Amino acid sequence: MAGEARIEQTDEGAVVSSPGWFVLNLADTVWQRHERAGTWTDFEGGDFEQYGIGVHVLEPGQPNGRYHSEAFQEDFLVLAGECILIVDGEERRLKQWDFFHASPGTYHIRIGAGEGPCAILMAGARGEGNKIHYPRNELAARYDASSPEDTTDSRVAYGDWVREFERVRSVWPI
Predict the structure, then answer these.
(1) Residues 6+ apart with CB under 8 A from 25
(2) In DSSP terms, which residues pair with 167 in a beta bridge?
(3) Are 64 and 110 contacting, i.e. CB atoms less than 8 angstroms apart?
(4) Which own/partner pairs from 15-20 qualify as long-range (CB within 8 Å, at least 24 positions apart)?
(5) Using CA atoms, how far apart are residues 113 and 26, in angstroms rounded to an integer?
(6) Cα–Cα distance measured from residue 77 to residue 147, given in angstroms and rounded to the nearest whole number
(7) Each residue's pLDDT tens digit in the chain (174 positions)?
(8) Taking all residues of the chain, what is their mean pLDDT, rounded to a whole number?
(9) 106 to each of 39, 65, 72, 91, 167, how far by Cα in Å?
C-alpha cells in the first residue's frame, strides 16, 4: 500500500512529488504553458505510470499538439467551451460535454475554437510499446497542427516549435 502522496508547494502551485493517493483542486496545482499549445495541468510523474490524465486549456486557434495516432487508447471530454477535432482526416466541432474516444491507431488532434477558452479533460494509457505516428496532414496543417513530414520522432514532428514550457499558476476555473 502506497499511502498518501507527498505534496510540495511552489511559487506556481502544488506539485505531487511522490507515489500514492492524493486530493488536489486544479486551481491549486502547477500548470504548464506553451505559446502555441495552450496551458495544461502538470500531473506527470508521481504515481501516473499506467496512464496520463489532465486538463488542457486552449484559446481559439491553439492546437494542443500535432496530429498523431498512438498504439494505446485515449479519451477526451470537453469540460467548457468549444474545439475543433480532426479525427482520421475529418473535421468535427465539439462543445461542452462532448466526449471523444480514440481507439488505438486513430489519428487525432484538437484545436481551440469559439469565442473563448476551451477546457478538455484528457486521459490515455501509457507504458512501453506506445508508438506514436505523426503524419503530414493538410487539414491539420491549416491549424498549425501537422508534422512537417511523416515521422515517429517527436523531435521531427515538433521541430519548428520552441520546446520550452513555462510553469504557471492555475488558469482553472475558466
Answers:
(1) none
(2) 32
(3) yes
(4) 15/42, 16/43, 16/45, 16/46, 16/47, 17/45, 17/46, 18/46, 19/46, 19/47, 20/46, 20/47
(5) 23
(6) 24
(7) 679 988 999 999 999 888 888 999 999 999 999 999 999 997 765 567 778 899 999 999 999 999 999 999 999 999 999 999 999 999 999 999 999 999 999 999 999 999 999 999 999 988 888 899 999 999 999 999 999 999 999 999 999 998 888 999 888 787
(8) 92
(9) 24, 15, 9, 14, 30
**Whole-angstrom Cα distance, residue 72 to residue 135?**
17
Residue identified by cell 513555462 is 166
DSSP letter string over 118-154? Answer: EEEEEEEE-STT--EEB---HHHHTTT-S-SS-BS-H
Helix extents (H) in 64-106: none
Name the β-bridge partners of 63.
Answer: 111
What cell numbers appear for 34 in the block? 506553451
